[in-house]
C-alpha cells in the first residue's frame, strides 16, 4: 500500500495534481477541503463548525479534521493506497495520522511538497476565487492570513518528515504536465 501526503500552501496545485496522481497510482484521493465543503454544503453540524473557521481564514481544529479523515479512510476498506491532500497540517495531525496508519498495518510512504512563491500563489487563489465561490479565495488579506497560519503551524512538518526520511520538495511552478512529471519521478523512486 502506498500512502502519499501532498503538501503545500493553498493555491500550490495540490488538488490539480492529485487528480493525475490518483489515476496513475490507483490511490483514493482524500482532500480535507472537499470533505469540509461536502459537510458545509449539506449543513451538517461539523460542516457549520468548519465553515466558521474557514470563513475567517483559519485552520479547522486538529481533532475535527483528524476524525473526518479517519472516517474517510475507513469508508474505503478496499483502497490500494491514499493520497492525502491538505492533511496533515500540524505536527499533532501528523502524529495522529502515523498512529492511525500504523493501527491499519501501513504507514505514510512519502510527503511531497509543492513549492511556489507566495505572490504567485496569491494571484492563483484570487483568480480561482472569481469562479469557485470560496470566500477565502476572494480576499487577499484572508489568503495571506492562511499563509501565516501555514508558516506557523504547517511548515514545521517539513522537519518532522525529514527526520523520518520521507520529505521530498518539488517545484510547483510551470506547466501542469511538467509538475506531474516531477511528482511522478519522486513517487516512482520511492
Automatic annotation (TrEMBL):
Start and end residues of each stretch annotated as NMP: 31-60
InterPro entries membership: Adenylat/UMP-CMP_kin (IPR000850), Adenylat_kinase_CS (IPR033690), P-loop_NTPase (IPR027417)
Entry-linked Pfam families: ADK (PF00406)
Tree of life domain: Bacteria
Pathways involved: Purine metabolism; AMP biosynthesis via salvage pathway; AMP from ADP: step 1/1
Binding locations of AMP: 32, 37, 58-60, 86-89, 93, 134, 146
GO molecular function, one term: AMP kinase activity
Coiled coil: none
ATP-binding found in the keyword field: yes
GO BP terms in the entry: AMP salvage
Record bears the keyword Ion transport: no
Gene Ontology CC terms: cytoplasm
Predominant subcellular localization, coarse grouping: cytoplasm
PROSITE patterns: ADENYLATE_KINASE
List of residues binding ATP: 11-16, 128, 174
Key words, A-Z: ATP-binding, Cytoplasm, Kinase, Nucleotide biosynthesis, Nucleotide-binding, Transferase
Subcellular localization, as worded in the UniProt entry: Cytoplasm
Catalytic reaction annotation: AMP + ATP = 2 ADP
EC number, UniProt record: 2.7.4.3
Role description: Catalyzes the reversible transfer of the terminal phosphate group between ATP and AMP. Plays an important role in cellular energy homeostasis and in adenine nucleotide metabolism.
Family the UniProt entry places it in: Belongs to the adenylate kinase family.
HAMAP family from the UniProt entry: Adenylate_kinase_Adk
Domains as described in the record: Consists of three domains, a large central CORE domain and two small peripheral domains, NMPbind and LID, which undergo movements during catalysis. The LID domain closes over the site of phosphoryl transfer upon ATP binding. Assembling and dissambling the active center during each catalytic cycle provides an effective means to prevent ATP hydrolysis.
Subunit structure: Monomer.
The protein, known as: Adenylate kinase
Protein species of origin: Flavobacterium agri
Amino acid at each position: 500500500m502506498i500512502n502519499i501526503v501532498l503538501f503545500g500552501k493553498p493555491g500550490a496545485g495540490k488538488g490539480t495534481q492529485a487528480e493525475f496522481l490518483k489515476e496513475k497510482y490507483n490511490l483514493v484521493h482524500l482532500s480535507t477541503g472537499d470533505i469540509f465543503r461536502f459537510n458545509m454544503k449539506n449543513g451538517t453540524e461539523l460542516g457549520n463548525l468548519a465553515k466558521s473557521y474557514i470563513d475567517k481564514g483559519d485552520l479547522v481544529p486538529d481533532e475535527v479534521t483528524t476524525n473526518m479523515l479517519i472516517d474517510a479512510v475507513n469508508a474505503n476498506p478496499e483502497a490500494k493506497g491514499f493520497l492525502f491532500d491538505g492533511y496533515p497540517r500540524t505536527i499533532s495531525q501528523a502524529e495522529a495520522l502515523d498512529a492511525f496508519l500504523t493501527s491499519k498495518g501501513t504507514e505514510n510512504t512519502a510527503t511531497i511538497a509543492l513549492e511556489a512563491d507566495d505572490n504567485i500563489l496569491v494571484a492563483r487563489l484570487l483568480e480561482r476565487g472569481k469562479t469557485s465561490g470560496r470566500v477565502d479565495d476572494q480576499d487577499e488579506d484572508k489568503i495571506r492570513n492562511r499563509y501565516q497560519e501555514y508558516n506557523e503551524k504547517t511548515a514545521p512538518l517539513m522537519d518532522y518528515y525529514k527526520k523520518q526520511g520521507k520529505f521530498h520538495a518539488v517545484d510547483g511552478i510551470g506547466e501542469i504536465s511538467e509538475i506531474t512529471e516531477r511528482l511522478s519521478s519522486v513517487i516512482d523512486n520511492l
